[in-house]
Write a structure and sequence with these properties.
Blueprint (H helix, E strand, L loop, with lengths): L2 H51 L15
Keywords: Membrane, Transmembrane, Transmembrane helix
């Protein structure tokens, strides 16, 4: 095997390894971004469902009073 062939295979293996690392980092970042977006989208829905399940009762002291 000549030096050019060895150099080619070394660069090929190195480029495949670096590409795999970059893709795995990208996928992890994409998962984190997707999780944040889903949490932000579902938070209001869960909030309103919980308010329907556990209704809050207002007492008379919570109301604003009239000025004399």
């Amino acid at each position: 095997m000549s030096k050019h062939t060895i150099n080619f295979w070394l660069l090929f293996i190195l480029s495949v390894a670096i590409s795999a690392i970059i893709i795995s980092v990208f996928v992890k970042a994409l998962k984190i971004i997707l999780m944040v977006v889903l949490v932000l989208a579902l938070t209001p829905i869960v909030y309103f469902v919980l308010r329907l399940i556990f209704p809050t009762r207002k007492s008379d002291s919570d109301k604003l009073r009239k000025r004399d």
